[in-house]
Amino acid sequence: MSKDPNHEPEGSAQVTAEDPSKQPDALERRKYTLELWKVILSPAVALLGVIVTAIIGYLSLSNQVNNVQTKVNEVGNRVENVERNVIADRFIIISPQEGDTVDSSVIVRGKTPYPDRNHYIVVTSLKTNDDYVQQNLIRPDPSGAWTGNAEVGTGNEGAGEKFLVRVLATTAVLPAGPMKDPPRDAIPSEAITVTRKK
């Protein structure tokens, strides 16, 4: 029996080529799928780029804000140091303050740039223009802070009147009571005006 080359035995798998008319559909589907992914991914990639740019921008701006805040803090610290130095170099009464109404006996506090000198509170009646050196010699602490007592008027005299209060820094020793002439080396503090209670 001769074999027919075109005849396949029964039960054998038949290999057939794909129908050429169906190939374009598969190719079109692949193109369509690629285009669809481009459409989906393109905005996502663009959005991701915008987000990354925004994050970088925010971090950069945040860094700049922190730098500005640091500079502002540095300037603030310098201003505070200048203020401290100015106050340290001033001879001032801190308490009471200008225009305060006070009792006849008052505690006076201040700051001096002359901590090695003797300090005396001097009260002047604006009615009589008499200067009175107060009882206590004041010794400032090393930082220049000082505290002393003053009598504004005596007894009922001076009630409701205005008084000038200042401090003298000197190497001299001053007796308490009326002051005729201040010592030659006396350095006066800034003066304040107070009113004695009625």
Describe this structure in words.
- This protein folds into two domains: 66 residues; 105 residues, Immunoglobulin-like.
- The protein is rod-shaped, with a radius of gyration of 48 Å.
- The protein contains one helix and ten strands.
- The chain has 198 residues and is an alpha+beta fold.
The CATH topology of the largest domain comes to Immunoglobulin-like
- The count of DSSP E runs of length 2 or more, i.e. the number of strands, is 10
Question: Domains counted in the coordinates: how many?
Answer: 2
Helix fraction by DSSP (H/I, runs of at least 4): 25-40%
CATH superfamily of the largest domain, by name, is Immunoglobulins
Assign the CATH architecture of the largest domain: Sandwich
Shape, please? Answer: rod-shaped
Ends distance: 150 Å
Mean pLDDT: 84
User: Count of helices?
Assistant: 1
SSE pattern: HEEEEEEEEEE
Structural class: alpha+beta
Assigned CATH class of the largest domain: Mainly Beta
Spans where pLDDT lies below 50 across 5 or more residues? none
Largest sheet composition? 7 strands, mixed
What integer value in Å does the Rg equal?
48 Å
> How large a portion of the residues is in β-strands, by DSSP E?
15-25%
